[in-house]
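Before relying on records like the one below, remember that each one covers exactly one chain. Contacts with other chains, cofactors or solvent are not represented anywhere in the record.
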Amino acid sequence: MVTAVVVVALVMSLGVLTGHKKGSGAASASSSAPYSSVTQMKKGMEAKAGTCSGGWNDVDASQFPGVSAVSVCVSGRYAFVTFESKTAATVDGPVVRSKAGGLLNQYLGGGGDAAADYRLLDGGQWMAVGDKSQMTALQSEWGGKIETLGDSQ
């Protein structure tokens, strides 16, 4: 549930901030993720991050310019966002990155840095969020750059 709330809040932030924030560039790491297919992204994430036993929740991304898909696995506590183009990822990616750690801390509650256990995996035209082991496993398959969310608040 927490991951779902955080991802929806991130995407809502994109809708508010798109066009108002200059991008700092997409990840330069190469990516072999199947970001053009939501079904293949889900299968790939489940293969590396664990089965989504509770089923996937897809967020209607049509209301967020530049975002092509948002899917959340509540039971597995992981999610992904794909962007329509590298330009959209360049503009919207920094918004996701800057908001993710703070939102996880807000929704996980408690003292300290709850987001420190989560990672953001940036593949250029897609981003995934999950715990350290999930994102490390996914990176071995798809590439991308892992970031600690606790450092990006």
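The longest strand covers residues 67-73.
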